[in-house]
Amino acid sequence: MESFRTPDERFEGLPSYSFEPRYLEQDGLRMHHVEEGAGDPVLLLHGEPSWAFLYRKMIPPLAEVARVVAPDYFGFGRSDKPTRIEDYSYDFHYGSIERLVGELDLRETTVVVQDWGGPIGLRLAVERPDRIARLVILNTGIGAGGAPSPEWLRFREFMRRFGSDLVPGQLVQISCVSELSEEVLAGYNAPFPTPESKAGVLAFPELVPTEIDHPSAAKMLEVRGALTRWEKPTLVLFSDSDPIFTPDAAERMAARIPGAGSAEIVPGAGHFLQEEKGEEIAERIVRFLADQSR
């Protein structure tokens, strides 16, 4: 499998991001993760087209109470990037994260998921309940192979139209309520200096099942069904200004999971609520963890 490795200098001087890079090898590919703090693990899973940089505001406060692990999927961040779109699949991403959890021996883990972190992390919860103790669910869903929303179809068409000309930071910006600085946008662009480095970004929209015979559909349906039996503590926390993962979607997600209370809505944020309200979300997660330890 041919892959691209983003040069280290692309990651120098990024705002509020000075974490030591850590790496694990999987089948000849190098996977990056941030690891800070001590205690029961908190696993932070990003989505499209972001990487661990998305969690930079949340890692320090969470690391005061937990062992925080924030990986980059293959194709993203500081991890190696297979260069063909067909190299990527739902199973490929899930398998790499399950292996990372095993290699780091994460137990009693709180998994924080957003965007594509949802299908990956929620599958981890239902398939490895021996390692996962709690869930925090931010702006995500799990596809069922049904008709997608018009907003999501517009997003997929946007991705197909731009192809390897896509500028990931611009995608993050149009999905936020507030205006991001050039330095922050550069952080989201840093991993992707060439067309071949963007294959993972371009693959993700194609992995969402829009028909029941899509390769991802059966497993996602299985995970979706298993969540109706998930009774471990779960915090559902969405933003108020995401056109795809709306407050109504948050309520539906919370209603599906027995371990969840009512959905909570964070005002003044779009899809990337970790970017716009990271400190507030981290504070809420710290309270959630404290409540569970009483």
Can you describe this structure?
α5 (about 170-175) packs across α6 (about 180-190). The protein is about 35% helix and about 15% strand. It has about 290 residues and is an alpha/beta fold. The termini are far apart. It has an eight-stranded mixed beta sheet, with helices on both faces. The protein is globular and about 50 Å long. The protein has ten helices and ten strands. The protein has one domain (about 5-290): Rossmann fold (3-Layer(aba) Sandwich).
Number of strands: 10
**CATH top level assignment:** Alpha Beta
Major sheet details? 8 strands, mixed
What sequence of helices (H) and strands (E) makes up the elements? EEEEHEEHEHEHHHHHEHEH
CATH fold-type name: Rossmann fold
Distance between the termini: 48 Å
The largest beta-sheet arranges its strands as: 2-3-5-4-7-8-9-10
Count of domain modules: 1
Task: Work out the strand percent.
Answer: 15-25%
Examine the secondary-structure arrangement and name the CATH architecture.
3-Layer(aba) Sandwich
Portion of residues within helices? 25-40%
Helix/strand structural class: alpha/beta
Q: What's the CATH H-level superfamily name?
A: Alpha/Beta hydrolase fold, catalytic domain
Radius of gyration: 17 Å
